[in-house]
Known about the structure:
The protein has 99 residues and is an alpha+beta fold.
Amino acid sequence: MFDYTSRYANQKKLQYERRDGRIVSYAARRILPARESFDTLVDVYLGEGQRLDNIAALTLGDPQLFWQICDANGVLNPFDLMSGVGKMIKVPMPGRQMP
């Protein structure tokens, strides 16, 4: 259902049967991990025009791991994290995060 790099890759897969008999598959709700559970690899100062996928590619080696940076900073929406030009964000240690 999800690529192995997805934040939902290890979530339990559930199904719901509709009244018309169709089966709807979905992932169980994912709870955001506590910010303090992450060790920091590096702090990144957000400059004008930076993108989270580029930061993830440079620091974690894969642009699709942007969600790990979101988790380490306690946000669900990547746009919320990137809205603060001039602030520091935490990039977590690679291999520590579990989706």
